[in-house]
TrEMBL record:
Residues 1-17 form the signal peptide. This is DUF4440 domain-containing protein. It holds the Pfam family DUF4440. It comes from Hymenobacter cavernae. Residues 28-137 form the DUF4440 domain. It comes from the Bacteria.
Amino acid sequence: MKLGLYLLSLLLFTACAVERPAAMRHDISQVLATQTAAWNRGDAAGFMQGYWNSDSLVFIGKRGLTYGWQPTLDNYRRSYPNAAAMGKLTFSNLHITPLGARAAHVAGRWHLARPAAGDLDGHFLLVFRRIDGRWVIVADHSS
């Protein structure tokens, strides 16, 4: 009897602790939507709220590796110094793949519409982790 109660308790605890894939995909999609809105109003710091605020954040782009939240923000500000340079961001072809209860990766395409400076686009692979109750990007490989 005690073993059965223990197993039932363990099963219930596990079920509550693991986020369902649909909920995970929704939550991660919301992070990306919030980032898009921040970018499109010219708010690079707001865009960065979707990233892990840690020196262990890694960003891989055409200029190589960048480690840390602040250096990544500094690179964005250097590359996109104002709202016109930032343009309007869209993400498409999103494929959100759970890697467990607390991790996922997202592959997709990004596009910046910039009438004055010329459009930019490419692909990305993001690694998300659930840290302190929030889904955040811990690694970004954009090209």
